[in-house]
Design brief:
- This protein is an alpha+beta fold.
- The protein has two domains: about 90 residues, no CATH class; about 130 residues, Serine Threonine Protein Phosphatase 5, Tetratricopeptide repeat (Alpha Horseshoe).
- It has ten helices and six strands, in the order ββββββαααααααααα.
- Strand 4 and strand 5 form a beta hairpin.
- Helix 5 packs antiparallel against helix 6 and helix 8 packs antiparallel against helix 9.
- The protein starts with a strand and ends with a helix.
Length: about 300
């Protein structure tokens, strides 16, 4: 027959003299009354403390918990087996669901892709910005974009000799005149024709040589000197162009085309005030001529 320790309530065999749990002496004569229920669990009568509710054995006179004297009229039956079950808690952790992890991985992948896209966009924008800066630098250094702050409109000089431009017949005529000049270096008329034809064909360096050759024979020809100045201007030799026009104006003080071209040369040299003086002089000479109208237009635009 199985009994229970009156001190700790542990199971003890009938032949035990001491409790194997708490070491108390077993007194089977004074042990608590035992009643077996239908389920096989053992019920033990205890005294419930009226002060703290602690369950005490029948032999106790005072509460083991609070020390208050026990009222032996209040007894209760407790199911030791149920107490053991109630006091024994098994903690079970649910395994982490793989399905719950999948959305997290998906979000992680999506965020990685998003970051990658942002980085790619930044790289593209940086590349475009660098390209634009490089293009601007090239344009500025090549002179296409002027940052000097002065308005300089590319303007062509007006030649005194108006030609038709280069063509096959002009090449043939140039060769013919060259042969004539080679045979007769003092033929001023042939030299001037050769200079004008080379000027019209865009052969400015060769034309300058012929104009210079001609002006040694006819130094007072202002028209030829102004045409040679136009050649220097097209060759970007602005100082020589200005010098030749000033010389031409000595021989022809009211040369309207000379003042117009002198103003254009000063524009190219960033001498705006001198350019305006020359344009005003050209307008004064004849405001209704084509040269005068052009000079007036340049005054208005500068």
């Amino acid at each position: 027959m199985v009994s229970f320790c009156t001190e700790c309530g542990a199971k003890v065999e009938q032949n035990f003299k001491f409790c194997p749990i708490c070491g108390s002496e077993i007194n089977f004569s004074s042990s608590a009354q035992k009643v077996s229920d239908e389920s096989g669990s053992t019920n033990t009568q205890v005294i419930v403390c009226s002060n703290c509710g602690e369950e005490n054995s029948l032999e106790s006179n005072v509460c083991n918990s609070c020390g208050v004297k026990l009222n032996r009229t209040k007894k209760a039956t407790t199911n030791l087996l149920n107490n053991i079950k109630a006091n024994t808690q098994i903690r079970v952790e649910k395994p982490k669901s793989k399905k719950q992890n999948k959305p997290q991985n998906k979000n992680k992948n999506e965020s990685t892709v998003t970051v990658g896209k942002k980085l790619d966009s930044k790289k593209i924008l940086a590349f475009i910005g660098i390209s634009i800066v490089l293009v601007l630098i090239i344009l500025i250094t090549s002179g296409v974009i002027d940052l000097s702050g002065t308005k300089t409109t590319p303007t062509e000089l007006t030649p005194q000799n108006q030609g038709s431009g280069i063509d096959l017949s002009s090449i043939s005529k140039i060769n013919e005149l060259k042969n004539i000049v080679d045979k007769n270096p003092n033929n001023a008329s042939a030299i001037l024709d050769l200079a004008n034809l080379r000027f019209d064909s865009g052969f400015f360096e060769e034309a300058v040589k012929n104009y210079d050759q001609y002006l040694k024979l006819e130094p007072k020809n202002a028209n030829a000197r102004i045409d040679m100045a136009v050649c220097f201007y097209n060759l970007q030799q602005f100082d020589k162009a200005e010098s030749e026009i000033l010389t031409a104006l000595k021989y022809s003080p009211n040369h309207q085309t000379g003042f117009l071209n002198l103003g254009v040369i000063n524009l190219a040299k960033q001498n705006l005030e001198k350019a305006k003086e020359c344009f005003n002089k050209a307008v004064e000479i004849d405001p209704n001529s084509e040269v005068g109208k052009r000079a007036k237009s340049l005054l208005q635009s500068h």
